[in-house]
Amino acid sequence: MNLLIFTKKHALLSLVMLIAQCLPAIAQGQITQSYQGKAMIGFSGTSTLHDFGGRIPDLPIRVERIDDPRSGNPMRWKMEASLEVAGMTTDHAKRDARMMEMFRVTDFPRIHLRTLDADPSVGLQIMPEPGPEQVLLGIRILDQEVIVPVSIVSISEQAGHLEMVMEAELSLKAFGLMRPQTALGLIKVGDSVKVRAQVVLDAMSEVKADQSPIK
User: Fold this and answer.
1) What CA–CA distance (Å, rounded) separates 112 from 102?
2) Rounded distance, CA 197 to CA 120, Å?
3) How far apart are alpha carbons 29 and 152 in whole angstroms?
4) CA angle, 28 as apex, 22 and 29 as ends, to 5°?
């Protein structure tokens, strides 16, 4: 009887240990497809006298789809990128100079972007029709990261080619940025900046199961 009880306890303990070893892999999932391409980004703002627009050089990006190993369905998407502040322009030399001062480009030459772990049904999921879906981005400017909801205006996918249009509205104050203004404060830039990005991605070759996702 004692031997039977010991055997059952040993079997149960072995099962528990096996499940514990499997849980991290189940929770993490694995990359099954990577996409690479670029984002073409424009922005617009307001000032006391007039509105203005600007653009950022094409931003190379890579997106990874991480699937649930049990169901095979997309579990989450990962993306990290950074852009050079010095590349931003409004095609107006004096305005650009004030913009560089606002971003403190010498001390903080890059803006960092990253997706946050989320259910893929909330964003970056290939949908049959465009919809008001969103994805949360962590945007770091200076030393301040702000979580920004980004709307996916349209999205389409065909034979591994993915295109989407994304929009967001940023607050300069939220990032600790001092808005440019004239010496007497008569002309001042508004706090809200609208950003619109056209993203074009192509699927890369199939990723090996043991490859680690973007950290």
Assistant:
1) 16
2) 19
3) 25
4) 90
Residues 24-43: pLDDT tens digits?
A: 444 455 667 889 999 999 99
Number of domains in the chain: 1
Specify if 172 maps to a domain: yes
What integer pLDDT is reported at residue 159 of this predicted model?
A: 87
3-state DSSP assignment of residue 146: strand
- More confident position, 20 or 83: 83
Residues in Cβ contact with 122 at an 8 Å cutoff, skipping those fewer than 6 apart = 133, 134, 135, 136
- Which residues 6+ apart lie within 8 Å of 96 measured at CB? 88, 89, 90
Is pTM beyond 0.85? Reply is no
Closest CA to 202 of 164, 160, 165, 154: 160
Residue 23 in domain = no
Cβ count near 108 (within 10 Å): 15
